[in-house]
Amino acid sequence: MHNTWIVFKKEMARFFKDFRLFFSTVIFPGLLLFIVYNVIGVGLQSFMQGSEDYIASVYTVNYPETIRSAIEIQDPALKITITAIEEDEIVTYRDLVRDQEVDLLMVFEDDFDAKYADVINGVSGAEAPYAKLYYNSTRTESSSVYTQIKAIIDHIEEMATPDLINLNEPVEIYDQATERDIASFVFSSLFPFLILIFISSGVVGLTAESIAGEKERGTLATVLVTPIRRGEYAVGKILALAVEALLSGLSSFIAVLLSFPQLAGLEGGFSLVLSSFKITDYLGILLMIIALVLFVVTLMSIASAFARTVKEASSYSAPILMLLMVIGVTPLLTQGGAATNALIYLIPIIGPLQALVGIFSFSSSLINILLAFGSTLVYATLLAFVLVKMFNNERVMFKQ
Fold this sequence. Notes:
mainly alpha, 400 residues
């Protein structure tokens, strides 16, 4: 037992006296989580506030008093503006719903109130009046107001007799989202995140083994005493790791891209992917992947160079990987649309992700793609400069 206590004290002393180990194990993860969760909280509050301030645009044909009174009871909770239109404008406004310029189109039977009253009063042969709600499931605001109005109509039925209103009987397509709209929404929400995760997860193991692994085995010290300049050696490492990570990321991404339509149940499958994107879109995706690979590789390489062992490098990389995963979910908050502020594309990681959102949502901008690519290359170059400085620092590279 005495020897056990000696070993325990020795390990504890090593743990608390080694500032880098203590910082990376105890302080850094908690500090990072605190910062990330606060940033996410502020972002979600801002996002929710924007949604709460939004006033949905609703158009209606033959607006019955029964529905009007039920909706007015909900005000101002609904936050909608309802505008009456004529029957000959139905097709026009259905197209506007499809194009995401109008949130909801409500079409009611001409004598809705009379038929509703007949059903309520049990008139023989009375038929339930119809109500049609046209919406776009790929637009959050449209889906939200559709759900709210549908809930009101369902409540009216529950208050009286079931099947009192024929709501959206399966004789027509009421969701105006096209297959391309659905693909755009799904692709732009998930694929930027998947690309970042594929790249980051591959880079972690590669950088830890390539730099910290060589330091741990002693082979790096042997190489650095040769005539090769350390800056050239560091850049060579970055380029090699970038190619390896690029191949790994591309392989995983292509597999998901080709199989996802079938997995998600999107009609068209592989042909949908081919027909949805142009050659310029694929080039834009490739540029963003290259930019992300270079940035993540240089960032992880710095963590690996600072570490003395593979295990220590992994402990440094884990919080960074977690941070990248958190950043990766930001496209989910864009609701299928890319940012319009050009300054967003100058932010590391977020800029390329937003550029990918634009490409996958079929609304890409060449200027935004170039801004994201160029700025990320600048950041990667700066990180590479830091890595070269670290390779030239004896205390960093050879401290035991």
